[in-house]
Specification:
Layout: H1 2-31, H2 67-86, H3 91-114, H4 119-131, H5 133-136, H6 138-166, H7 173-186, H8 188-211, H9 223-238
Length: 241
């Protein structure tokens, strides 16, 4: 308990800083801007202090405050602290879950804002999910490999059903790769748990939007964001592959 009291604030502060990098990458990657370019206000494009990517600052010109940045950093700080609290007795598990949280948070943030899942984010998550299991055990690697294949096949089936029902893809190829990454991170044992959590959240959101007439049956839903969120919860509850 004493170790946790000392270490968890460190994990939270580290998560706050890494959350800043996640938010910065989510902002710069879709726009094509260099990652190390000087920060600018997203509203008026006025230059901001160089360290404002780490500590949110109100724009001196338009007075805009980056609430999304603060929310992302706070959420990742809480999630990383929760991961190390949950797996404090097994640092390798805690490290694997923390790394998965960072990749999934980046995927979720970009998909929520831009309705895109970039290969440069989802493929490293898939590869790291597989490779890091080798540090755990051959059984973990096998579970991750089977989970990855099962996730990809399941969402490839959904992709085909979308064509049959709507005459257009209900899912993108990025969703198929994301499902493969989720299987690699959770293993086949908890793949369905992670997908069920994400799908349930997406379904509830869709019903709420339809009931309020803020969307139609053909409106885009950031499905990847919900799947990523469900996977994070599954990892915290049951651990990685």
């Amino acid at each position: 308990m004493e170790v946790a009291i000392v270490f968890l604030p460190i994990a939270a502060l580290t998560g706050f800083a890494l959350g800043a990098l996640v938010e910065l990458t989510a902002l710069r990657l879709p726009s094509g801007q260099p990652l190390l370019a000087r920060p600018a206000c997203p509203v008026c494009q006025a230059p901001l202090p160089r360290w404002s990517w780490l500590i949110p600052r109100r724009c001196a010109f338009c007075r805009n405050f980056p609430r999304h940045q603060l929310l992302s950093q706070t959420a990742i700080a809480v999630l990383l602290a929760a991961a190390w609290w949950r797996f404090l007795a097994d640092p390798l598990q805690a490290f694997r879950v923390s790394l998965a949280i960072l990749f999934l948070a980046l995927i979720a943030r970009i998909d929520w804002a831009h309705h895109l899942i970039y290969l440069v984010t989802v493929i490293p998550a898939l590869l790291l999910g597989l490779l890091l299991t080798l540090l755990a055990s051959p059984a973990a690697f096998l579970a991750a490999l089977v989970g990855s294949l099962a996730g990809a096949l399941l969402f490839a089936l959904f992709y085909g059903l979308g064509w049959l029902l709507y005459r257009r893809p209900a899912l993108g190829s990025g969703d198929v790769l994301l499902a493969a990454s989720i299987g690699a991170l959770t293993g086949w044992q908890h793949l369905l748990h992670a997908l069920a959590l994400g799908m349930t959240a997406a379904a509830l959101a869709a019903v709420w939007l339809l009931a309020r007439r803020r969307a139609s049956r053909y409106s885009y839903l950031p499905y990847g964001s919900y799947l990523a969120g469900g996977t994070i919860l599954a990892l915290l509850l049951w651990g990685p592959a």
